[in-house]
Amino acid sequence: MNTQKLNQQKNKAIVLVHGGFVDGSGWAGVYSMLKKKGYNVLIVQNPTKSLADDVAVTKSAIDSLNSEVVLVGHSYGGVVITEAGTHPKVSDLVYITAFAPDQGESVSSLIANPPPGAPVPPILPPKDGYLFLDRTKFAASFAADVEPGLASFMADSQVPWGLDALSGAVSQPAWKTKPSYYLVATEDKMIPPPAQRAMAGRAKAQVTEAPGSHAIYVSKPEVVAELIQRAADARA
Protein backbone atom coordinates (compact mmCIF):
# COMPACT_ATOMS: atom_id res chain seq x y z
CA MET A 1 0.00 0.00 0.00
CA ASN A 2 2.81 2.39 0.86
CA THR A 3 4.48 1.66 -2.48
CA GLN A 4 1.20 2.31 -4.28
CA LYS A 5 0.77 5.64 -2.52
CA LEU A 6 4.33 6.61 -3.37
CA ASN A 7 3.73 5.80 -7.04
CA GLN A 8 0.59 7.91 -7.01
CA GLN A 9 2.49 10.83 -5.50
CA LYS A 10 5.08 10.59 -8.26
CA ASN A 11 2.47 10.83 -11.01
CA LYS A 12 1.41 14.14 -12.42
CA ALA A 13 -2.23 14.99 -11.83
CA ILE A 14 -4.52 15.11 -14.84
CA VAL A 15 -7.15 17.80 -15.43
CA LEU A 16 -9.78 17.15 -18.13
CA VAL A 17 -11.55 20.08 -19.82
CA HIS A 18 -14.67 19.52 -21.94
CA GLY A 19 -15.68 21.46 -25.04
CA GLY A 20 -18.80 23.22 -26.25
CA PHE A 21 -22.33 21.75 -26.24
CA VAL A 22 -21.34 19.09 -23.65
CA ASP A 23 -20.30 18.83 -20.01
CA GLY A 24 -17.62 16.91 -18.14
CA SER A 25 -19.60 13.66 -17.91
CA GLY A 26 -18.34 12.63 -21.34
CA TRP A 27 -14.92 12.03 -19.78
CA ALA A 28 -16.27 9.15 -17.64
CA GLY A 29 -14.56 6.37 -19.61
CA VAL A 30 -11.21 8.16 -19.82
CA TYR A 31 -11.46 9.09 -16.13
CA SER A 32 -12.06 5.49 -15.06
CA MET A 33 -9.11 4.16 -17.07
CA LEU A 34 -6.70 6.76 -15.71
CA LYS A 35 -7.90 6.31 -12.12
CA LYS A 36 -7.33 2.56 -12.36
CA LYS A 37 -3.72 3.29 -13.32
CA GLY A 38 -3.27 5.35 -10.17
CA TYR A 39 -3.51 8.89 -11.51
CA ASN A 40 -5.10 11.76 -9.65
CA VAL A 41 -7.75 12.99 -12.12
CA LEU A 42 -9.94 16.07 -11.91
CA ILE A 43 -12.74 17.01 -14.33
CA VAL A 44 -13.52 20.68 -14.86
CA GLN A 45 -17.17 21.65 -15.30
CA ASN A 46 -16.83 24.82 -17.32
CA PRO A 47 -20.01 26.91 -17.78
CA THR A 48 -18.94 27.71 -21.38
CA LYS A 49 -20.45 31.19 -21.17
CA SER A 50 -17.19 33.02 -21.84
CA LEU A 51 -13.55 32.08 -22.32
CA ALA A 52 -12.53 34.25 -19.37
CA ASP A 53 -14.92 32.42 -17.03
CA ASP A 54 -13.82 29.00 -18.27
CA VAL A 55 -10.14 29.85 -17.86
CA ALA A 56 -10.81 31.05 -14.32
CA VAL A 57 -12.68 27.85 -13.41
CA THR A 58 -9.90 25.73 -14.94
CA LYS A 59 -7.14 27.61 -13.12
CA SER A 60 -9.06 27.18 -9.87
CA ALA A 61 -9.07 23.41 -10.44
CA ILE A 62 -5.32 23.46 -11.11
CA ASP A 63 -4.75 25.52 -7.95
CA SER A 64 -6.49 22.80 -5.90
CA LEU A 65 -3.85 20.20 -6.82
CA ASN A 66 -0.51 19.67 -5.14
CA SER A 67 1.49 18.39 -8.10
CA GLU A 68 2.40 19.10 -11.68
CA VAL A 69 -0.61 18.93 -13.97
CA VAL A 70 -1.23 17.50 -17.43
CA LEU A 71 -3.96 19.72 -18.86
CA VAL A 72 -6.25 18.04 -21.39
CA GLY A 73 -8.79 19.76 -23.63
CA HIS A 74 -11.36 18.49 -26.11
CA SER A 75 -12.65 20.70 -28.94
CA TYR A 76 -13.29 24.21 -27.51
CA GLY A 77 -11.56 22.93 -24.38
CA GLY A 78 -8.37 23.27 -26.42
CA VAL A 79 -8.84 27.05 -26.39
CA VAL A 80 -9.32 26.94 -22.62
CA ILE A 81 -6.14 24.93 -21.99
CA THR A 82 -4.16 27.09 -24.42
CA GLU A 83 -4.98 30.13 -22.28
CA ALA A 84 -5.01 28.46 -18.84
CA GLY A 85 -1.98 26.27 -19.55
CA THR A 86 0.47 29.06 -18.74
CA HIS A 87 -0.28 28.26 -15.08
CA PRO A 88 3.06 27.31 -13.48
CA LYS A 89 1.78 23.92 -12.31
CA VAL A 90 0.96 22.82 -15.86
CA SER A 91 3.73 20.67 -17.31
CA ASP A 92 2.11 19.35 -20.49
CA LEU A 93 -0.86 20.02 -22.76
CA VAL A 94 -2.95 17.35 -24.49
CA TYR A 95 -5.32 18.32 -27.30
CA ILE A 96 -8.07 15.83 -28.15
CA THR A 97 -9.36 16.78 -31.62
CA ALA A 98 -9.26 20.31 -30.29
CA PHE A 99 -8.67 23.91 -31.24
CA ALA A 100 -5.12 25.07 -30.53
CA PRO A 101 -5.24 28.82 -31.20
CA ASP A 102 -2.32 31.18 -31.58
CA GLN A 103 -2.21 34.62 -29.98
CA GLY A 104 -5.30 36.64 -30.87
CA GLU A 105 -7.17 33.67 -32.33
CA SER A 106 -10.52 32.30 -31.17
CA VAL A 107 -12.90 29.56 -32.26
CA SER A 108 -14.74 32.21 -34.28
CA SER A 109 -11.64 33.22 -36.20
CA LEU A 110 -10.46 29.65 -36.73
CA ILE A 111 -13.76 28.51 -38.27
CA ALA A 112 -14.45 31.71 -40.22
CA ASN A 113 -13.20 30.46 -43.60
CA PRO A 114 -13.71 26.69 -43.94
CA PRO A 115 -11.99 25.09 -46.93
CA PRO A 116 -14.18 24.04 -49.87
CA GLY A 117 -15.88 20.71 -49.27
CA ALA A 118 -15.30 20.74 -45.49
CA PRO A 119 -18.30 19.53 -43.46
CA VAL A 120 -20.26 22.36 -41.89
CA PRO A 121 -21.31 21.74 -38.26
CA PRO A 122 -25.11 22.01 -37.88
CA ILE A 123 -24.99 24.98 -35.51
CA LEU A 124 -28.36 26.68 -35.17
CA PRO A 125 -28.71 30.49 -35.24
CA PRO A 126 -27.84 32.00 -31.85
CA LYS A 127 -30.63 32.46 -29.35
CA ASP A 128 -30.21 34.86 -26.42
CA GLY A 129 -26.44 34.80 -26.91
CA TYR A 130 -26.07 31.01 -26.95
CA LEU A 131 -25.58 28.31 -29.56
CA PHE A 132 -26.91 24.76 -29.94
CA LEU A 133 -26.40 22.02 -32.51
CA ASP A 134 -29.41 20.78 -34.45
CA ARG A 135 -30.47 17.77 -32.36
CA THR A 136 -31.52 15.79 -35.44
CA LYS A 137 -28.01 16.14 -36.90
CA PHE A 138 -26.01 15.95 -33.66
CA ALA A 139 -25.10 12.26 -33.89
CA ALA A 140 -23.91 12.41 -37.50
CA SER A 141 -21.76 15.48 -36.99
CA PHE A 142 -20.54 15.13 -33.40
CA ALA A 143 -20.85 11.53 -32.30
CA ALA A 144 -21.15 9.22 -35.31
CA ASP A 145 -19.30 6.33 -33.63
CA VAL A 146 -20.95 6.69 -30.22
CA GLU A 147 -23.60 4.14 -29.22
CA PRO A 148 -26.88 5.52 -30.66
CA GLY A 149 -28.70 5.74 -27.36
CA LEU A 150 -25.85 7.68 -25.77
CA ALA A 151 -25.48 9.92 -28.84
CA SER A 152 -29.18 10.72 -28.59
CA PHE A 153 -28.79 11.55 -24.89
CA MET A 154 -25.85 13.85 -25.70
CA ALA A 155 -27.97 15.64 -28.31
CA ASP A 156 -30.87 16.11 -25.90
CA SER A 157 -28.70 17.24 -22.97
CA GLN A 158 -26.69 19.91 -24.78
CA VAL A 159 -25.14 22.68 -22.75
CA PRO A 160 -25.72 26.18 -24.19
CA TRP A 161 -22.47 27.46 -25.71
CA GLY A 162 -22.03 31.20 -25.21
CA LEU A 163 -21.06 33.48 -28.09
CA ASP A 164 -18.54 35.11 -25.73
CA ALA A 165 -16.82 31.73 -25.40
CA LEU A 166 -16.79 31.31 -29.16
CA SER A 167 -15.22 34.74 -29.68
CA GLY A 168 -12.82 34.62 -26.73
CA ALA A 169 -9.29 35.22 -28.03
CA VAL A 170 -6.11 33.69 -26.63
CA SER A 171 -3.60 36.15 -25.16
CA GLN A 172 -0.54 33.96 -24.57
CA PRO A 173 -0.59 30.45 -26.07
CA ALA A 174 0.71 27.92 -23.55
CA TRP A 175 1.84 25.56 -26.31
CA LYS A 176 4.65 27.95 -27.15
CA THR A 177 6.36 27.09 -23.86
CA LYS A 178 4.87 23.72 -22.78
CA PRO A 179 5.27 20.27 -24.40
CA SER A 180 2.12 19.39 -26.33
CA TYR A 181 0.40 16.25 -27.59
CA TYR A 182 -2.41 16.08 -30.13
CA LEU A 183 -4.91 13.38 -31.06
CA VAL A 184 -6.30 13.79 -34.57
CA ALA A 185 -9.68 12.11 -35.04
CA THR A 186 -9.60 11.23 -38.72
CA GLU A 187 -13.41 11.01 -39.13
CA ASP A 188 -14.22 14.25 -37.32
CA LYS A 189 -17.10 16.20 -38.91
CA MET A 190 -16.82 19.20 -36.57
CA ILE A 191 -13.14 20.18 -36.90
CA PRO A 192 -11.73 19.01 -40.25
CA PRO A 193 -8.72 16.68 -39.79
CA PRO A 194 -6.51 18.87 -42.04
CA ALA A 195 -7.20 21.81 -39.70
CA GLN A 196 -6.35 19.62 -36.73
CA ARG A 197 -3.04 18.61 -38.32
CA ALA A 198 -2.21 22.22 -39.13
CA MET A 199 -2.82 23.39 -35.56
CA ALA A 200 -0.89 20.43 -34.14
CA GLY A 201 2.04 21.13 -36.44
CA ARG A 202 2.10 24.79 -35.52
CA ALA A 203 2.18 23.84 -31.84
CA LYS A 204 5.00 21.35 -32.52
CA ALA A 205 2.86 18.74 -30.80
CA GLN A 206 3.52 15.01 -30.75
CA VAL A 207 0.72 13.79 -33.00
CA THR A 208 -1.28 10.58 -32.81
CA GLU A 209 -4.03 9.78 -35.32
CA ALA A 210 -6.95 7.43 -34.82
CA PRO A 211 -10.22 6.76 -36.68
CA GLY A 212 -13.03 8.33 -34.75
CA SER A 213 -15.66 11.05 -34.59
CA HIS A 214 -15.44 14.38 -32.79
CA ALA A 215 -16.57 12.49 -29.70
CA ILE A 216 -13.64 10.05 -29.82
CA TYR A 217 -13.06 10.70 -26.12
CA VAL A 218 -16.44 9.04 -25.53
CA SER A 219 -16.33 6.31 -28.19
CA LYS A 220 -12.68 5.28 -27.81
CA PRO A 221 -11.59 6.27 -24.30
CA GLU A 222 -8.69 3.80 -24.36
CA VAL A 223 -7.03 5.68 -27.24
CA VAL A 224 -7.42 8.99 -25.43
CA ALA A 225 -6.28 7.63 -22.06
CA GLU A 226 -3.17 6.12 -23.64
CA LEU A 227 -2.09 9.47 -25.09
CA ILE A 228 -2.75 11.26 -21.79
CA GLN A 229 -0.74 8.63 -19.93
CA ARG A 230 2.16 9.17 -22.32
CA ALA A 231 2.14 12.87 -21.46
CA ALA A 232 1.79 12.16 -17.73
CA ASP A 233 4.72 9.76 -17.70
CA ALA A 234 7.01 12.02 -19.70
CA ARG A 235 9.83 13.50 -17.63
CA ALA A 236 8.15 12.20 -14.47
UniProtKB/TrEMBL annotation:
| Domain of life of the organism encoding this protein | Bacteria
Q: Which InterPro entries does this entry report, sorted A to Z? A: AB_hydrolase_1, AB_hydrolase_fold, Sec-Metab_Biosynth_Hydrolase
Q: Which SUPFAM superfamilies match?
A: alpha/beta-Hydrolases
Domain AB hydrolase-1 residues, every copy: 14-226
Name it: AB hydrolase-1 domain-containing protein
